[in-house]
Amino acid sequence: MEVPPAPKTPDELHDRRMKAAALFEAGHHSQAQIARLLGATKQAVNKWHQQWKTGGTQALAARPAGADTLLEADQERRLLRLLDQGPAAHGWDDQIWTLSRINRLISEHFNTAFADPSGVWRMLQRLGYSWQVPAARAVQRDEEEIATWCTTTWPQAKRPR
């Protein structure tokens, strides 16, 4: 028995899942046999079978490329303005945005939220938001006091060579 070539396009992947659904419906083959017939892994066929049992053939249908966005374009612009205000403006005492904090902000302002923090991450990437953390600085940092310490206290505390 010859194994078919691996599908490369979304249409070919869709066709392979539809063939699997037809084989599940026929009920004559084991999952291992279906995997061999279609050139798929046993794990993939098992996953397809679970999806097929819960949602039928429609559960195996191709989905459009790219996930639907959670927020509308104007809501995304508003979210970016909220993020630019910084975490302190929204009740956190440090200057670090975390995915869970951003998801909470989305929930509070837009009455929706991502089920998984990775959705927040993907949205931020798409919007061009960086993951980089700013240099850690205390919110109550007093530059004048630091300059005074550097010019008066530090020279006295520093050991002579």
Automatic annotation (TrEMBL):
Q: Which residues form the signal peptide?
A: none
* Membrane-traversing stretches: none
UniProt superkingdom: Bacteria
Winged helix-turn helix domain: residues covered: 93-149
Q: Which residues form a coiled coil?
A: none
What is the name of this protein?
Answer: Winged helix-turn helix domain-containing protein
- The species this protein belongs to is Nocardiopsis rhodophaea
